[in-house]
């Protein structure tokens, strides 16, 4: 049985060290024993991968015609998309002035 390690442990039977996040193959009885101790759990099902990779869609920035309605994060994104630098501590008014200068 395949099990996901939730807490690192050293297996007393094989003396192998298993770290959290690792998947291990265990017998049903051994799985029940380690699961009761909180060391392993049933792994989550992996989502099926699409056969064809989806085309990445680029999100176009909002038009710059009305910078007053934009949030600080949106202003930073537009400034950086135009090749400018937007400091993290800049206020909304400062970011609007930077955008107007670009």
From TrEMBL:
<feature type="compositionally biased region" description="Low complexity">
    <location>
        <begin position="51"/>
        <end position="61"/>
    </location>
</feature>
<protein>
    <recommendedName>
        <fullName>HeH/LEM domain-containing protein</fullName>
    </recommendedName>
</protein>
<feature type="region of interest" description="Disordered">
    <location>
        <begin position="43"/>
        <end position="65"/>
    </location>
</feature>
């Amino acid at each position: 049985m395949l099990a996901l390690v939730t807490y690192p442990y050293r297996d007393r039977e094989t003396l192998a060290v298993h770290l959290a996040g690792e998947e291990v193959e265990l017998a049903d009885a051994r799985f029940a024993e380690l699961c009761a101790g909180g060391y392993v759990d049933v792994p989550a099902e992996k989502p099926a991968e699409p056969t064809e990779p989806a085309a990445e869609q680029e999100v176009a920035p909002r038009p710059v015609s009305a910078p007053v309605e934009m949030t600080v994060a949106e202003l930073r994104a537009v400034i950086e998309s135009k090749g400018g630098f937007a400091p993290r501590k800049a206020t909304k008014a400062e970011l609007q002035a930077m955008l107007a200068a670009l």
